[in-house]
Write a structure and sequence with these properties.
The chain contains 17 helices and six strands. The chain has about 425 residues and is mainly alpha-helical. The protein has four domains: about 70 residues, no CATH class; about 60 residues, no CATH class; about 110 residues, Orthogonal Bundle (DNA polymerase, domain 1); about 180 residues, hpI Integrase, Chain A. The strands form two sheets. It has a three-stranded antiparallel sheet, covered by helices on one side. About 30% of the residues are buried.
Length: about 425
């Protein structure tokens, strides 16, 4: 213990060399040595006082080492990114905007150092914080395997531990496929996509909460983040044909949408082809497209009205690649609607016959059941995100609620120029 003590004047200080492998961690800020005055000139009192200080320092060193390479950095980054994006959205001056962009780089550097990220993960952290490019995998398979071993060793039997790990793999797969973060909303969407009883969903949440406890054990900073598996109000799953499947839809690739469009054109079904093209280049739902009247086309905007929610009412800039099509549909319209429909179903749904034709066509092309017309909307959102469009601009185009009081109540939303620039990033090849 005495080897950690040094006498400066008449006062004893405690010191400890910081190992090279953790100096970049925010706990140490590149310091080579930690020192602290013990505020005593008595050697024995200094020895006694130094014990607690050294224990705390060594604990911080061990914590820094334990975090190296943990994939939980992605959860930590998600929370930081949401806060920065919110600030970016309300920036009023070029100086404020540049300051936030600098903060994005700074947070990326902090995460890289805090978690000791190397090679491709360093690039992933930087791209996510600065360019909105989400990492390919939210949680590494290795960490889930470690969770399984941890549970079997400390809390439950091997069979239960295996089941819990399987639940986590399923949740993470859903999140990665849909290109979303591990948040309360994403867990809720995952649960809504399951046609199972509420008690079975609770088992999923129990596994999720156990996993979150494990993450907090491995990464103490996770305790500062909200647990995405807490406070879910579970409803009984609907049965039969009317069950809610909206969150189980799988996005198409851009090439797949282009393939279906071409097949519709080859069949001579121009109405279906037009609907596909408009959906891909606006992000609109099929029902929204089929409800459009000629009066909903105002200057350079498609105006969505009478949506189910206030956020669903929106103005979407007309993509240059559908401007000619929209003008042609307006001229050809005989009933005031943009899209021609033979008739609605018994509930007055004008999109019903078009949706069914789409379903039959995509089935003959060999696409799986999870890929439906609504999947086009998911593809559009995904392509916008991957093109680096700010999340709040994407939400305004798609008609999604942001769930932030500043934006949902007080903000007028992104400008036409911001949305127009975003829409033009969509580059489908409809030939």
């Amino acid at each position: 213990m005495s080897r950690h003590l040094i006498l400066k004047g008449s006062t004893w200080h405690v010191r400890l060399d910081v190992p090279k492998d953790v100096r970049g961690h925010p706990n140490f800020m590149m310091k080579k040595v930690l020192t602290k005055s013990l505020k005593t000139g008595n050697h024995q009192a200094a020895v006694d006082a130094s014990r607690e200080v050294l224990i705390e320092w060594k604990k911080r060193i061990n914590e820094a080492r334990d975090k190296k390479g943990l994939s939980s950095w992605k959860i930590h980054a998600e929370a930081k990114k949401q806060n920065l994006d919110a600030n970016l959205y309300i920036a009023k001056t070029a100086e404020e905007f540049q300051k936030i962009k600098y903060d994005q780089l700074l947070e990326a550097a902090k995460i890289i150092n805090e978690y000791g990220l190397k090679n491709h993960e360093r690039e992933e952290a930087l791209q996510f914080m600065v360019n909105n490019t989400r990492p390919k995998t939210t949680i590494s398979p290795q960490l889930i395997n470690e969770f399984e071993r941890y549970q079997a060793k400390n809390f439950v039997g091997e069979k239960t531990a295996s089941m819990q790990a399987s639940h986590i793999r399923e949740i993470i797969k859903y999140i990665d496929i849909n290109n979303i973060g591990l948040t309360h909303d994403s867990v809720e969407k995952y649960l809504d996509s399951l046609d199972i009883k509420s008690i079975t969903k609770r088992n999923r949440l129990f596994s999720g909460n156990s996993f979150w406890d494990f993450l907090e054990y491995k990464d103490k900073s996770i305790k500062n983040e909200p647990n995405p598996f807490h406070n879910h109000n579970l409803q009984r799953a609907k049965k039969g044909k009317g069950k809610d499947q909206k969150n189980s839809y799988i996005p198409f690739t851009q090439a797949e949408i282009e393939k279906i469009y071409k097949a519709a054109m080859d069949k001579g079904d121009t109405v279906l082809a037009d609907t596909i093209k408009i959906a891909a280049l606006t992000g609109c739902r099929i029902a929204e497209i089929c409800k459009l009247t000629t009066s909903n086309i105002q200057k350079n905007n498609i105006v969505i009205e009478n949506a189910k929610t206030n956020s669903g009412n929106r103005h979407i800039p007309i993509h240059p690649n559908i401007k000619e099509l929209v003008d042609s549909l307006i001229k050809k319209s005989t009933d005031g609607f943009l899209i021609s429909s033979s008739s609605g179903n018994k509930y007055g749904n004008r999109s019903d016959s078009i949706s069914k034709r789409f379903g039959r066509l995509k089935t003959t092309l060999g696409f799986e059941s999870g890929k439906v017309f609504h999947s086009i909307r998911k593809t559009t959102a995904t392509l916008l995100q991957r093109a680096g469009v700010p999340p709040l601009t994407i939400a305004a185009i798609m008609g999604h609620k942001v769930n932030h009081i500043t934006f949902d109540i007080y903000s007028a939303g992104p400008s036409f120029q911001q949305k127009d620039l975003a829409i033009k990033k969509l580059q489908f090849k409809f030939n």
